[in-house]
Write a structure and sequence with these properties.
159 residues; alpha+beta; Double Stranded RNA Binding Domain; two-stranded antiparallel sheet; 5 helices; elongated
Length: 159
């Protein structure tokens, strides 16, 4: 399982739950774990409500190594260090050829795929959405200042 951060897993009877470690809240109480009548559906609903991260499993995507292109001379054309990931469920394709290292490109490609999935499933929490929000806020401020400037010029002329 390839995950951006650590994963906490529970295995109780026939139920298997996995959860990202970056949450500070414990969603399984000791009483619920100790009870003999453990309802898996309630826990899954609780996890879905508190889930703020996307977990990416190795079985969720296909990975290919293709020859790179662009600057770098003969070496870039001979080695297959460009990584292409295709997410099976959504069809999102991510290519990465940032470095000469295949392992580093694999890590970067997974990070990019995770960011795209975060934007798709939880847009308010993704970095891309935060950048868009900041840009829109900046444009609104520029427009507000322009209107204030025009209004000040108009008031000076009327006097």
């Amino acid at each position: 399982m390839a995950v951006a951060r650590g994963v906490l897993s529970f295995h109780m009877g026939s139920s298997f739950l996995s959860r990202d470690l970056n949450l500070y809240n414990c969603w399984l109480s000791k009483k619920k774990l100790a009870s003999s009548c453990y309802d898996n559906s309630q826990t899954i609903e609780a996890v879905e409500k508190k889930s703020d991260t996307v977990i990416l499993k190795e079985s969720d995507f296909q990975e290919k190594f293709i020859k790179g292109s662009g600057p770098g001379g003969q070496k870039i054309n001979k080695t297959s260090n460009c990584v292409e990931l295709k997410h099976d469920a959504t069809g999102i394709i991510v290519k990465c050829q940032e470095t000469r290292s295949l392992e580093r490109n694999r890590v970067i490609a997974r990070e990019r795929l995770l960011e795209k999935l975060r934007f798709l499933y939880n847009p308010s929490e993704s970095k891309q959405q935060q950048r868009l929000d900041a840009k829109q806020k900046q444009e609104k401020n520029i427009e507000r200042k322009r209107r204030l400037r025009e209004e000040a010029i108009k008031n000076r002329i009327e006097i």
